Amino acid sequence: MASFVNCIMLKKYVLLFAFMLSQVNSEENDHVHKHATEYTKDDFSAEIQKKNHFVMFHAPWCGHCQRLEPTWEQLAEMSNQEDNIKIAKVDCTTDHSLCTEHDVTGYPTLKFFKAGEAKGTKYRGRNDLSSLISFLSDQLGTAFGSGDVASLPPGAVNSLLELTTDTFYKHVFTGYHFINFYAPWCGFCKKLAPVWEELANSLRNNNHVSISRVDCISHPIVCEKFEIEGFPTMLWIEDGKKVDKYTGQRTHEELKAYVSKMLDKGEDQVKTDNSDSTAHAVLSLTGESFKHGIEKGVSFVKFFAPWCGHCKRLAQIWKDLGKKFVTDDNVKIIKVDCTLDVSKELCNEQEVDGFPTLYLYRDGVKVSEYIGAPILDDLYEFVMNHVQPHDEL
Question: What percent of the chain has pLDDT over 90?
């Protein structure tokens, strides 16, 4: 009985300590100097008329917003040296009507507002510092932050990501991923932790791979799906599919060499699979030809951007999918480049919020979005599931 009471008291002390620590962290954060300007519905419309603005519409609870926050503050600090642009934020949990007015349907949504104009241009790129700077330079027609970028600390482009049940599948949907599945109580995991962080940091500017980890105690469903039986387990995942299990030495040098080897193998596979015979199996449409191009039959459309790494890795799979339907007059495999001026409005109308986005249309009407892994057989089955019921009618 005494030991039970002691456990209860210990738990209370732990909770009290955690609360006190959170209060300290909150106070510390309150004293961090913020460079981004906070707007509300009361001043937003008037302020964006005066100067160019780049605005982040966000929610405090949004994990993606929290990860973007330090980069957004870096961008805002750089804007202090610029006369023609201001970096700002709008909290959509307190100004919901303002966010609705600007078609904000997900967080974070980033929009550039040209001085004097009420309608913004939606940003669709990566949320790293260099991509944001490139976008601003294009919008402003002049180099943003020239001379200041090198002096800033490196942004967390591909630094260590903590994945959850909610974020895991969308994250590994396309591309190359090296993931550490661990348990917080595991001694070997604790020993690996700083090495894994070092690996992520050393590859943060590598656009071809992401380094991440998953807490299997907090997110058992993910770990069960990938048949994790011990900790730590390090898997190489490509386009949502397990490709290899790492069994080598757990040093930074060995882990980094393994990543290089797996990336080289992936590049060799792309070169081997590349074939001109599939060049015409995929139909390229633009905003001008889209409506006519999808008005009959089943159309499976990939909305993409040429600079998007996930899109590049999907390109060959998409060609192979097109080849499977090249003799089927009822099915068209299509791609739309959303960076072309002639297609930007189309992509906005079709609610393309990220790249690649895969929509299926029947007789000109959008009927479904593909959100599974970019695996050729799965993509083929997805199309056939929509073709067969249609043909039976």
Answer: 32
Active site residue 99: no
Is residue 347 annotated as part of the catalytic site, yes or no?
no
Q: What is the pLDDT of residues 304-334, one digit of tens each?
A: 988 777 888 888 899 989 988 888 889 999 9
Range list of β-strands (E), the chain? 37-39, 52-58, 85-91, 109-113, 121-122, 161-163, 176-182, 209-215, 233-238, 241-245, 283-285, 298-304, 331-337, 357-362, 365-369
pTM of the model: 0.36
189 is catalytic: yes
The distance from CA 150 to its chain's CA centroid, rounded to whole angstroms, is 25
Quick check: bond before 306 cis, omega within 30?
A: no
Separation CA 118–CA 56 (nearest Å): 15
Q: Is 52 exposed, middle or buried (0-12, 13-18, 19+ CB in 10 A)?
A: buried
Q: What are phi and psi of 181, to 5 degrees?
A: -95, 120
**Which entry of 216, 223, 308, 347 is annotated as an active-site residue?**
308
**Known catalytic residue at 62:** no
Active-site annotation holder among 65, 92, 99, 189: 189
CA 213, CA 222: separation in Å to the nearest integer? 11
CA distance 362 to 200: 43
Report the C-alpha gap between 237 and 209 in whole angstroms. Answer: 10
